[in-house]
Records
---
Amino acid sequence: MEVLVTLAQIGPGFGEVIGRGIGAILLYAVLGVLLMLLGFYAVDITTPGKLNRLVRDGLPNAVVVTAAGMVSMAFIVVVAIYTSTGGLLEGLLASLIFGLVGIVAQIGGVRLLEWVTGIDIGAVLAAERIQAQAFVVSAAHLALGLVVAVAIL
């Protein structure tokens, strides 16, 4: 009994569908990674100190806040990609636009919360011991990421 089946035997155009699907996955993955990197740099630029250095040095508040920021950016990027409709190009463009707007809203909201609460985020991130304010800022990142992600829906 021969088990080997060719794509042509499975159905006409099956190989083409798989090829387009793989291409779309790769393109959305690249877009997602780029948006995540942009989100990280947006947090870094708007935060006092060099965030990647603070994280690399293992400062606990910087690690906690950065991790929360990255997860919140992922919420936004995932929902932006999930809600994309139309053809591949339209979907990628919509994901890019919604992702960028979401990142701006996320950063603005967190910075506003820090200002309203009087948190000196630069001092918090540079501290060598964990501080309660880091959890407030981290929670703000996660909460705003969810709010922005649902707003995209």
---
Amino acid sequence: MTDVLRRGRASLAFGFGVQGVAFALLVTRIPAIQDRYGVSDALLPAFLAAVPILAGIGSVSTERLVRRVPPSRLLRWSQPVVLLALLGVGAGERMVELGVALAAFGLAVGVLDASMNMLGVSLQRAYGRSIMLSFHAAYSLGGIVGASLAWVGAHWDLALWVSYLPVVLVLLPAVLVGSRWYVDDRGGAPGAEEKAGDSGAQGRAVVFKWLLPLCLVMTFAYIGDSTVSNWSAKYLQDVLGSSEQLATVPYNVYMVTTLLGRAIGDLGVRRFGAVAVVRAGALVAAGGFAVVAGAPGAWVGMLGFTLVGLGLCVLVPQTFAAAGRLFPGASDAAVARLNVFNYVGFLIGSPLVGALGDLWSYRGAMLVPMVLVLVTLVYARSFAAQPDRYGGGHERSRTADVGRGGNGL
């Protein structure tokens, strides 16, 4: 293993962590943002929906940009834009300024998420063993740090820009320096990426046909994730009768268990293979939602949300990794398209659970993400190693080692 790859892995993990910090600082201070700009409850959903929609546009644009610009360069410049846009959200005064800052944040996040996972997939291919979960573990750690910083700002009643400015001043130069060691390794036959991207309607149909199961798994995983993010506190307080303080605990526990699961998840993939890990994760997450739906009290409900975190945490990283194995000659395009369904799940999940909770019951609503996560079992075989569909036969043995759990070294 070369020093170049080790530095590339460390710098990319740091980039994932920074993104976790930035995103947590935004979403955990939404009430403060609403108060600062006077955004009404009726208008707030439109602002919140705009971010994932624009992120999806940014992800789709990345698929085209990487034909001419390396993913490392896109990541190098999109991450500072995300941090500056976050500062803009905290420093603005008028509604239009908030709209511009959120638009910049959303577009840049789409480019950042896609390019970050492109580099993760290519590094895993270069390593010859599963390392994708470790990058997402860094993101979870960053989310915990960001949420903690947000709590400090809220506890001390600091202005948003006062909370955000020190973070941006520290992280902005750090990511610019760290980006020097990003590693681009697209793999596959020379020119395969360009052929895959320019092969016309037939080539795109083939990509979508094989990518569709992974797109569905990505959507279902993020429906589950957004359910926990948006409804766990309300569920514990309104349905299970917990105190307001106790109701804030499940999401924090969820983030911690996500970090722990991802930190050890790569070992499970190397030992048992991606298919087994995905199946186990889906069963654990579905079991967690079942516990939540039937919980007699708050502590059992928290146990359920903990199980959800342990199960869901492996699905998204392994979905990106599986896309890289399915299309080693066109992994950048596959990752960019797959990343869009991250935002689709986020947009669907929260309104779906809220509508079902109002029309039916919140206990019943928790069964919907449970069923959707179980559908992942139908598509689990899509996570097995596949031959290169674009003719890069020399990749076959190394990707097979990753799928079976071999270390490739």
---
Amino acid sequence: MVTVADVRTVALSLPRTTEHLIRDRVKFRVGQIVYAALSRDETVLGFGYPREEREALVASDPVKFAFPSQSDMRFQWVHASMAELDVEEMTELVIGAWTMCVPKKVIRAHLGEDYL
């Protein structure tokens, strides 16, 4: 199980990330783009994920992953149960979400040429 501190450690290690408390929810963003957010009770991690791949992700483990609310389906977003995630998987998901909203040159500088 991952904690809010685990998510915060990963997210704040990524360039251009800022943390915000919006309507009692911790959110991590680059500029105005939110790429990861925690539910009010801190049991669900929402994160950016390619729209065309999210159905396969949710189908791969419906206990761990879930679609966002119907009104949020227009966004590239998925939810994950914090209790079902391990730190390695959470790290991969948060970094993946972050890469969706920063320039490729920032990704290369932080993660290396091989990550792209």
---
Amino acid sequence: MNLHIIALFKFNENYLMEAVELFQNLVKETRKEEGCLQYDLIEDKDNKGTFFLIELWESVDHHNRHNGQDHLLDFRKDASKMMESSTEVYKGFKIY
């Protein structure tokens, strides 16, 4: 069963250019992963510094493998210094 994820990030406005660069690398590398069906970066239109990752994974196992990838671990380490708050992550399965 496909796993849907929405991850919400809030970056300090002083780091927006750096954040976008980090996200670009993360998205590029993640889209190459087996089981990644969608991985899109969205910027909130009303809240500067707020980004969403819209993810679709073939399975929970594929997502679990993603969590151990170097490009994700590097992103988490580098982004944590620039964020205003902790990442919010919502995971679920399509009902209809």
